[in-house]
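Cross-posting from the modeling subforum.

Setting up a comparison between two proteins and wanted a second pair of eyes on the formatting. Protein 1 (sequence, then structure tokens):
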Amino acid sequence: MSRFERNRGLKYVGGEIHVVKGIDPDFLSFFEALGIVKDFKYVGDVKLWWKGSKQKLLNNIRLLSDDKEALALAKYAEDRNEEVDIFVQHIPCQYEVVHFIVGAGMDEELGQPEVGGEDDVVPEAHVGGEADVVPEAPVGGEADVVVRQK
């Protein structure tokens, strides 16, 4: 796995190099960059970082986390006619234990409200009858549209 190391500066260790050419800067977005990275079989959670190819890594690396930063990357490359380096930082998955709250009126196994039983039955309500039906009327052109109110 690739990572950043500090040792008399900043180094990117263990990464692969892939060259991608022909990207239109007018259509570059964060998700486009992420898609390019995923095409190289990077899986899981990642952070993307970038810098100009002629810049030193220390003090010039920027987080690529949204479209605003993707626009800054594209503008940088276009204004300077320079390639950019994108670095992939793998984020280890952290699992979170979720505890269900069980209380009065809750199903003990699932932590969901109990349903069923006669107290939960809703009596039928009057939905409508023939008096509520509006008869169809032929409609001619746009000027013939009639709106009826009850």
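Protein 2 (same layout):
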Amino acid sequence: MSTSPPDHSQSLNHTTPPNDTPPPSPTTPPTRQLYPIPTRALRAMAFTLPRPADDEPATAWHEEVQAALDTLAALDPRNPIEAILAIQMIAANAGAIDACRLAFEPGASEAQAHRHRASANALTRTATTALRLLKQQQKLPVGPPRDWGDTVADLGEAWRQAPARPVELTRGGKTVADDTPETIVRWIDELTDEEVQIAIEQERREKAGEPPLPRKPGQPIVLYRYKPTDYIHKFSPDPKNWQKYPGFENMTMAERRAMFGYTYTGPNGPPEALTPASRDEMLKQIESEKLLDAEYGPRLDRTP
């Protein structure tokens, strides 16, 4: 066995290749700092929570707020965007829970319960979406802080000096809540011939599912209806009208009236079934016929 020392000449001749990786930066990356959530945002969040009963003690109100703040702390928002998403998630979840409670109230009707459950479902989707976006936002790298300088003070002062929203107009001493046009009802037997054509077109559009007739700004919505005592409610179609009568076109008017059982012998029709303009025209015609009958005698074609 040889006891000579090992030859290191070959290992000394091989040099270690240079490392191309740059040395780590001496500056540490920014970390997620606690974000001071503004008090106005916390106040807005608290006002979205289910309101306890007025007769409940103050501790009930405190418990609601404390639960919301604990949820906010668990979501751990570290920037304004995360704070917005976290507050939206808390508000939507509180609204969904309250909508479910209203849906199962003993006095809620079936329609009300259906609407409340639909609202709860929509709010739950909103809360789920906000939570998903919050998790995505929290995975993004943290950027360096931005110094706004005097921008905050300048914009705040400009905002404060800007004119506020104009006061809503009042009508009769009451504030107008919205711009919903007034709805009025017009009786069909009181319409003019032009208004009857408008009512017919409006009814046709409603049945066809077309947009309603255009209205001018401030013009009320007009609903055309029959009076409860109108002639249309007394009329019932005769089953004989749906039958076929051979030779009908060769009958005289008197024969047709006798066949269908018509008893009215006026010039146009029952006065209560006419529009005011047509009724006035018929009355004028009747008066003129009376004058002619008084001067020349009754007509021979008039039925007794």
